[in-house]
């Protein structure tokens, strides 16, 4: 029997992590571009209030789209590198995902501490000029803002946690350390 050496197969866990990185990275690129556009449009009066009363508001406003663009590109490149079992791609994927989790947590804490109280006040001012409603519109808006924070965190974690889990799986660790898994097709041919 002639035995031909072939490159190791990329485990399903690594392929899945690569696909998730590429999809998540593409979504971050879209968010980064949209966030960049939103920097130049919007209500200048609302921005003025935020700039005056929220410390570091302009830094956060510019940091998020720039971060999304950088992390998005990094994740797409890392995802492609994972398909070829490049060790550097695995390290880049870990770093990008951990950074993204940290950034999202910090951004949402900042929003909860500084921006939500300002938005509540802004909403209360706008509601004074409206006719009375049969329900408390301010509470609905406040609830929806908190729900937005929760959904934002959950969406990011829905990508980040599986990526970390797949890259940390035994098959992924073995593939990147050079340990090849037995090919089930080879076993079938011998029978």
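-> sequence recovered:
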């Amino acid at each position: 029997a002639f035995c031909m050496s072939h490159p190791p197969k990329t485990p399903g866990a690594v392929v899945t992590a690569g696909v998730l990185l590429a999809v998540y990275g593409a979504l971050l690129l879209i968010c980064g571009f949209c966030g960049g556009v939103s920097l130049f449009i919007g209500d200048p009066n609302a921005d003025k209030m935020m700039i005056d009363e929220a410390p570091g508001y302009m830094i956060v406003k510019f940091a998020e789209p720039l971060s999304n663009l950088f992390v998005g590109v990094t994740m797409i490149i890392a995802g492609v590198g994972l398909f070829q079992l490049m060790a550097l791609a695995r390290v880049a994927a870990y770093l990008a995902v951990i950074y993204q989790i940290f950034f999202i947590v910090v951004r949402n804490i900042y929003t909860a501490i500084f921006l939500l109280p300002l938005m509540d006040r802004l909403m209360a001012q706008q509601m004074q000029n409206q006719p009375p409603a049969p329900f408390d519109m301010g509470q609905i808006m406040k609830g929806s803002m908190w729900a937005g924070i929760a959904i934002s965190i959950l969406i990011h974690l829905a990508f980040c946690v599986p990526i970390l889990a797949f890259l940390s799986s035994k098959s992924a660790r073995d593939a990147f350390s050079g340990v090849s898994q037995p090919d089930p097709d080879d076993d079938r041919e011998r029978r």
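The radius of gyration is 23 Å.
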